[in-house]
Amino acid sequence: MEPLSDKHIRSSFVNCTKGEAARLRLPLGFAELPWEDLDFLGWVDPGAPLRAYLVLPRPNGPLGIALRVPALTRTSAVQSSLCQICLTGHAASGVALLTAPLVGARGREGSTVGTYICADLACSLYLRGKRQPKLRFGRHEEALGLEERVDRMWGNLDAFVAKVTSAS
Questions:
Q1: Got the DSSP string for 50-77?
Q2: How far apart are CA 78 and CA 134, in angstroms?
Q3: What is the C-alpha separation between 68 and 53, in angstroms, rounded?
Q4: Is 121 exposed, middle or buried (0-12, 13-18, 19+ CB in 10 A)?
Q5: Where in the sequence is the domain holding 121, given as residue range(s)?
Q6: Is residue 46 domain-resident?
Q7: Domain for residue 126, yes or no?
Q8: What is the residue-level pLDDT of the chain in tens, covering all 168 positions?
Q9: What residues form DSSP beta bridges with 82?
Q10: What is the full DSSP assignment across 123-163?
Q11: pTM here?
């Protein structure tokens, strides 16, 4: 991913107000992000931990999606979970159901769509082995190469973004 400026990031959001985009806090260590290892930028707002953001490169410029993080996590008998974007297996706490308001009037009326995703939104780093998930049991190794796993991730991510933006 090409590095983005603060201005490009804030102007990219399609499902929140300009005021909300202006108030969001960029990821910690923004100046040192490993852009070359990122397919998209994702982070939980360090000043508002119930908000998260995705910014995806697109031919016409970056596309930002505001997300909501669940306020309450319940202890579950589930020992592990799978991110629906990158298909990385995690301990149950490593995946969260994040929801995004739909673009347009439906979103302003409260309609959302959700997906289970790596709680730290670091799918790109997990795919490249730059970050390791915390697992109770061993990690499942895939036969697919990195390029194929990245392509699959983009298909899953594009499907989620299409659900968020289809209301416009």
A1: TEEEEEE--TTS-EEEEEE--S-----S
A2: 14
A3: 8
A4: buried
A5: 6-165
A6: yes
A7: yes
A8: 999 999 999 999 999 999 999 999 999 999 999 999 999 999 999 999 999 999 999 999 999 999 999 876 554 555 668 999 999 999 878 999 999 999 999 998 999 999 999 999 999 999 999 998 887 555 567 789 999 999 999 999 999 999 999 855
A9: 89
A10: HHHHHTTSS----SSPPPPPSS-HHHHHHHHHHHHHHHHHH
A11: 0.89
Structure tokens at 53: 């953001």
Residue 114 to residue 83: CA distance in whole angstroms: 12
Residue 154, domain member (yes or no): yes
Total residues found in the chain within this entry: 168
Question: The tokens 């969260």 sit on which residue?
Answer: 96
- Whether 118 and 54 have beta carbons less than 8 Å apart is answered as no
Dist. CA 85–CA 117, nearest whole Å: 6
For the chain, the domain total comes to: 1
Closest CA to 96 of 141, 45, 52: 52
Residue 1 lies in a domain: no
The rounded distance, in Å, linking the Cα atoms of 73 and 119 is: 12
Query: Cα angle at 56 between 32 and 37, to 5 degrees?
Result: 40
Residue where the block lists tokens 């994040």: 98
Place of tokens 């490993």: 34
